[in-house]
Amino acid sequence: MNYISIKNNQSILLSSIPESNYEAFYDMNIDLVMGKVERHCVNYFGYKVGNNVKLICCIADDATHEIYVSTCLVHKAHELESLTAKLLCFEKFEREIHENFGINYIDHPWLKPVRYAINRDDQSQIVANYPFYTIDSEELHEVGVGPIHAGIIEPGHFRFICNGEQVLHLEIQLGYQHRGIEQLFVEKKNLLQLATLSESIAGDTVVGHSVAFANGYESLCNYKPSVDIEFSRTLALELERVAIHVGDLSGLCTDIAYQLGSAVFGRLRTPIVNFLQEWGGNRLSKGLIRPGRNQFPFTPLLAERLSHVLDVFEPDFNEMAEKLFSLPSALSRFERTGLVSNADAISIGVVGMAARMTNLNRDIRSSHPFCLYTKLNHEPIIKRHGDVYSRVQIRRQEVAQSIHYIRQLIAEVPVETPFKELQNPQPNSFCLSLVEGWRGEICHCALTDEKGELMLYKIKDPSFHNWLALALCVRNNEISDFPIINKSFNLSYSGHDL
């Protein structure tokens, strides 16, 4: 067996990961995923070892709660067969490996830059010269949107090929703001600096990414967090989910010109983020999650306050949701718009809400549970039509579900445990941490050197999987529908560009 099976947040010695030649590595990972809906690639990356590149592939099995980790050593001058040629879900992972290390895949169908990292192998590849797909025709026209957008949206370029109003093809080019986050994790040695970095990966997923970092780092330190620490992380994740989902419902109403829904849902986000500030001093939860400590212990008094916030929030949310979902003009914009099929979702490896809208059950809270989700007995909310309406329904129902979980949690607030000092991370080790953020599956992989310091930190935001789903689902829609399709996914630019 050329792989090792681990669990979520389990640390192992790097030497315990079996190494094989590329041919065996290729065949094994194809076999692990091909035809098995319950399995998908959660991370696939490389790092330099002398003049060679070591590849590490991590395949999650959602049925057995296992993660299969394998590795191989290749030379950058070698030309390799691509996993993508057989399984499209590896497409972006291999593009990034090609961009970073110059490894050439002879049969990859779309071998283009992904992020324009500062230390990319080919410095002649610049974002201004991105090779967009084109179609020569007198009947077709191109529409470019971005990279500078209206409002506060981040930089990204959308290139549409249209026949009149009908979209035939969309290519999404990102990489305008590559910040070198992963390299900073290696350069910074102070734990507070690392925790602060994790909060900056994606500004709308502060809790999701900081919990992934904290869980993984604690595992490397052989530290088991107490119940009160896990309580705070679980509660914060569900509050973040409520806040973002409600804000997205407001944005979707804005894009269909439903002003009442836009105003009410926008207002309803405020008491949730205000409570986060009341709890930890920041509306986005920055500073709330820290490895090895309960930075802001949750108290029975805060539980009483949160219960009151939810008592006021719920009836207004339910009333506004009923109005939105009974409004014919809204439903006509949502239904059968921006369709992603179940087959496409499986093929391209989508995660989170974007998977669950197509009857594909992918939710780390149940498949690879962490923190207190084992006690909550989480049941993912699944839809099957794959359209904007399905994505809006999931948001509505997940808000209700999260409130139910929050009420369960605060009914019995755990006692704060005494602070216990973190030990140094174990040397020459590997850890993988999975968290279900509001957008979907977050994966952080950490490798330590012989001193126990981070020598590689690999981050994967769910947007890394899901941008392709957005590009595919606008086909055969009118270009005027793109704003609501885009908002119904609400993918991250910064989480992709890192």
What does this structure look like?
With 498 residues, this protein is of the alpha+beta class. The chain folds into two domains: 4-114, Beta Polymerase, domain 2 (2-Layer Sandwich), CATH 3.30.460; 181-497, Cytochrome-c3 Hydrogenase, chain B, CATH 1.10.645.10. It is built from 17 helices and 14 strands. Helix 4 (191-198) runs antiparallel to helix 5, helix 5 (206-220) packs antiparallel against helix 6 and helix 6 packs antiparallel against helix 14 (388-410). The protein is globular and about 60 Å long. The two termini are 34 Å apart.
Notable features of this structure?
five-stranded mixed β-sheet; four-stranded antiparallel β-sheet; Cytochrome-c3 Hydrogenase, chain B; about 500 residues; Beta Polymerase, domain 2; 17 helices
The rough form would be described as globular
**Strand residue content:** 15-25%
Count of helical stretches: 17
Q: Strand count, sense and closure of the main sheet?
A: 5 strands, mixed
Mean pLDDT: 94
Content-based structural category: alpha+beta
Any idea what the CATH superfamily of the largest domain is called?
Cytochrome-c3 Hydrogenase, chain B
CATH fold assignment of the largest domain: Cytochrome-c3 Hydrogenase, chain B
Give the count of structural domains. Answer: 2
| Helicity level | 40-55%
Distance between the termini: 34 Å
CA radius of gyration is: 22 Å
Name of the level-1 CATH class of the largest domain: Mainly Alpha
Which architecture name of the largest domain does CATH use?
Orthogonal Bundle
Low-pLDDT runs? none
Say how many strands there are: 14
